[in-house]
Amino acid sequence: MIYTPLTKKALKLCFEAHKDQTDKTGLPYIFHPFHLAEQMKDEYTTVTALLHDVVEDTDYTLKDLQNMGYPDEVITALSLLTHDDGLEYMDYVRRLKNNPIARAVKLADLKHNSDLSRYDTIDGNAIKRTAKYKQAIEILSL
Fold this sequence. Notes:
Blueprint: H1 5-18, H2 31-39, H3 43-51, H4 54-57, H5 62-67, H6 72-81, H7 89-96, H8 100-113, H9 124-141
Helix pairs in contact: 1-3, 2-3, 2-8, 3-6, 3-8, 6-8, 8-9
């Protein structure tokens, strides 16, 4: 993990935003963004990885994050990473492909979410999600 004043600020916000949430495996959700952040190679991708689901899964907005002083590059990447339910999933993936920060974070996100060893029980929904994520990884890897 890269530790700068900005990443420490994002670590704290990430923890606060997700501290009471669990993921589909029943584990504390916070482990997921921390896992992604550990794989990032620079400050902005680390911050984006930590905050990648804050707007989608909590009451925080992009404007809130902007008002907290997060850089425009991070806000833009977070905007692209926040999936609008009205947009077909693969179109959403294609839309973020050309932003290097969003692309790096989304690839790590998809790979982590595709790791079926995280699950105690693998059902049909998990297999469907993994197939969808594999297709998204292919789109982002071209």
